Amino acid sequence: MSKETEFYKKLKKTLLETTKFPTEYMYKFIIPASDDKFKEIEHVFDNMGAVINSKPSKTGKYTSLTILVNMKTADEIIEKYKEVTKVEGVISL
């Protein structure tokens, strides 16, 4: 089993044990400071009522994103993580 598969399996187990669905879930990402990267992440959460807050790093090379969004299931949360990891240079926290 790949590290990624193992990570998502563990995350799903934790979510199911600790979270009552539907829930407001908080995603945290660090992206290279680029309007294109921000727009790609924004697109992943389009039409979901997500609240996206961004904060530039001290050097201005990176931007941290905090995204609050209502999610119905653990699988839905994991699916969004998988979509975001397709954006080059994204770090999930």
Topology order in helix (H) and strand (E) letters: HEHEEHE
If you average the pLDDT, what whole number results? Answer: 94
Question: What is the CATH class designation?
Answer: Alpha Beta
Report, as a whole number of angstroms, the end-to-end distance: 22 Å
Gross geometry:
globular
Which fold name is given in CATH as the topology?
A: Alpha-Beta Plaits
**Strand order in space, largest sheet:** 2-3-1-4
Output the radius of gyration.
14 Å
What proportion of the residues is helical, as a percent range? Answer: 25-40%
Tell me about the biggest sheet?
A: 4 strands, antiparallel
SS class: alpha+beta
Q: Count of helices? A: 3
Structural notes for this entry:
This protein is an alpha+beta fold. It has a single domain (3-92), classed as ACT domain (Alpha-Beta Plaits), CATH 3.30.70.260. It is built from 3 helices and 4 strands. A 4-stranded antiparallel β-sheet has the order 2-3-1-4. The two termini are 22 Å apart. The mean pLDDT is 94.
Outline the fold blueprint.
Layout: H1 3-18, E1 23-32, H2 35-44, E2 51-56, E3 62-71, H3 74-84, E4 91-92
